[in-house]
Design goal:
Elements (H helix, E strand, L loop, with lengths): L24 E3 L5 E3 H14 L3 E2 L6 E2 L6 E2 L1 H24 L4 H4 L24 E3 L4 E3 L1 H7 L5 E3 H109 L4 H20 L11 H33 L46 H4 L17 E4 L4 E4 L20 E3 L9 E8 L3 E6 L20 E6 L3 E5 L2 E4 L8 E7 L4 E7 L3 E8 L7 E6 L4 E4 L6
Antiparallel strand pairs: 1-2, 1-5, 3-4, 6-7, 6-8, 9-10, 10-21, 11-20, 12-17, 12-21, 13-14, 13-20, 14-15, 15-16, 17-18, 18-19
Helix pairs in contact: 2-4, 5-6
Length: 562
């Protein structure tokens, strides 16, 4: 049988943090008791503001967060005390004649009509918060109707909710600041887009204006070339016409003499004069006046064909380039977000090349894409190759020296037996190198002293014995030649295209892309001056070769020194 209950004062059952009746009382290692929720909130606060937790009552410091021990005895004591107080309050209410309507109010707790924070059932302070039901109740309601629930103090719950509110406000403020920053950045981006539109339009306009200016300059060069061809053809016709008129005048005189001789009555005079007149007539018949062997309109036809082919290639190049550019722009590859720069672009570039052919196509001053071909001399030197002249192929009039790097006309005229050097050029002052080029990219440089020379590349099987032009560089299908005199010209299959560029420097650069089938010539100085680009299908290794006239010297440059 249970013993009598010992009365306990309510102030001994109150939490030192919230000053309310203990709810779910727990004990910490120093021996003091608190509401579970209150002490947890206090320890959370201590951990956020310092490295140690402390007892709110005695101030004892804990190195680590202490373990909370549930005090069941104290919890039962609190519950019994509240039950006894509730019974007493109920009796007092019945004796005071509380109205029946008040007793019929809904169960639970709320504020009174006057707005005071009192429980309508127990007239106790609403200082307890049921975390399970999310209700504000008094201590008597908590012990009677909310047993086993998570109970806390109103002040402690208010403090916890205020912390949550502060965190939400802080996050909302941060998000708002981020959105405002994004809005400002987007406004700046719009301004930058407008500025970039104007800059891009101006830049593109300047580029196209430069292209148009370049085309106009080249068109003027073509006009000058045509005028020069016209003057040369007209001068040739004028000379032939003058010669023809002189010849016709002589024939008229001869015809008059013959007529006068035919009418003479003296047989003696006839026989004396006839032999001389007959001899003159026979000479005229044997050596009649020859007209111009070459068609004077041929240079104009060649010019028209070259310009027409160049126009087709430029048109094809532009069509392919702008088609690729448009596709890249439509796919969004030209726009980068998030502050990325133009350098972050993946360099999506269009690579277009004119169709290859065995013939020649004038592509003077062609725009070379930087990711396809080098531009500076240093970039060309990455593909430098070592060459040496082959004396076994040199014509008898040529002398090779400087370690097989230099060739000029020999001062000593001595003929070597044909059987000793069967591979040499017999009738033309030409020579080949020992090395055949067929790498993906090859580059070498030549220095020319003198006014006239030819820099060529040929297959090994080029004719070396014929007296006809078929053995000359550029006059057959097995060789390509850059001819250097007062102007440059390029020859292949006896088809020659004259360039408008006159020689200005002695060094010539040759750039071969064997697999791609392109052969480019440059004048080398402080910069690389593009001369011409040949497109063909190379089927065999190409051997560099040279032809030179008197007082001329050709030297292969040693690019290993650079």
């Amino acid at each position: 049988m249970a013993g009598p209950r010992i009365p306990v004062r309510m102030n001994h059952l109150c939490c030192r943090i919230c000053s309310q009746v203990l709810r779910n009382p727990v004990t910490i290692p120093c021996g003091h008791n608190f509401c579970m929720q209150c002490i947890q909130d206090r320890f959370n606060h201590d951990e956020r503001n310092s490295c140690h937790c402390s007892c709110p009552e005695c101030g004892h410091m804990f190195l680590t967060r202490p373990q909370l021990i549930k005090n069941t005895t104290l919890a039962d004591l609190v519950r019994d005390t509240e039950s006894r107080d509730a019974s007493r309050d109920k009796r007092n209410m019945e004796h005071s004649g509380a109205s029946t309507q008040a007793l019929k109010r809904p169960r639970g707790c709320s504020e009174t009509g006057t707005g005071s924070a009192l429980c309508w059932r127990h007239s106790s302070s609403l200082d307890v918060y049921c975390c399970t039901d999310k209700q504000i109740i008094c201590a008597l309601c908590a012990s009677a109707e909310h047993r086993g629930h998570v109970i806390g103090s109103v002040k402690g719950e208010r403090w916890r909710k205020e912390e949550e509110l502060k965190n939400i406000q802080k996050k909302s403020k941060q998000i708002l600041q981020q959105q405002e920053k994004k809005g400002k950045n987007m406004g700046k981006a719009l301004e930058q887009i407008q500025n970039e539109v104007r800059k891009t339009q101006d830049y593109c306009e300047s580029v196209f204006a430069g292209i148009i200016d370049s085309l106009q300059r080249h068109y003027q060069s073509v006009r000058e070339l045509i005028e020069a061809q016209a003057e040369a053809a007209a001068a040739q016709i004028q000379l032939s016409l003058q010669t023809l008129q002189v010849k016709m005048e002589e024939m008229r005189k001869r015809s008059a003499e013959l007529e006068h001789l035919a009418q003479t009555d003296s047989d003696v005079d006839f026989l004396k004069r006839w032999p001389s007149l007959r001899s003159l007539c026979e000479k005229e018949h044997l050596h009649p006046f020859h007209e111009v062997s070459e068609d004077p309109l041929l240079p104009f036809d060649s010019t028209k064909r070259a310009v027409e082919q160049l126009g087709r290639q430029l048109e094809e190049f532009c069509d392919k380039g702008f088609e690729s550019f448009s596709q890249t722009a439509e796919s969004g590859g030209l726009w980068q977000s998030g502050g990325e720069t133009e350098e972050d672009d993946t360099q999506q570039r269009c690579e277009t090349s004119p169709s290859k052919s065995h013939g020649l196509a004038e592509v003077n001053n062609t725009v070379i894409e930087p990711n396809v071909e080098p531009k500076t001399r240093a970039e060309f030197l990455q593909y430098a190759c070592v060459l040496s002249l082959d004396p076994a192929t040199a014509h008898d009039d040529l002398a090779i020296s400087a370690g097989d790097k230099e060739v000029r006309l020999s001062t000593q005229k001595c003929k070597s037996p044909a059987g000793r050097y069967p591979d040499r050029f017999v009738h033309r002052r030409q020579v080949l190198c020992r090395e055949g080029l067929q790498a993906e990219r090859c580059y070498y440089e030549i220095e020319v002293e003198g006014s006239k020379a030819e820099i060529a590349l040929a297959y090994k099987g080029i004719d070396r014995k014929s007296r006809t032009p078929v053995s000359a560089f550029g006059a057959n299908a097995q060789s390509w030649s850059l001819d250097r005199s007062t102007h440059y010209s390029v020859s292949h299959r006896a088809d020659s295209i004259q360039l408008t560029t006159p020689p200005t420097h002695d060094r010539i650069g040759v750039y071969l892309k064997f697999k791609e089938g392109t052969l480019s010539f440059y004048e080398v100085s402080d910069s690389m001056k593009f001369l011409y680009k040949v497109e063909a299908e190379f089927t065999e290794p190409l051997y560099p070769g040279f032809w030179l006239e008197e007082k001329c010297c050709i030297r292969i440059c040693d690019l290993r020194l650079y």
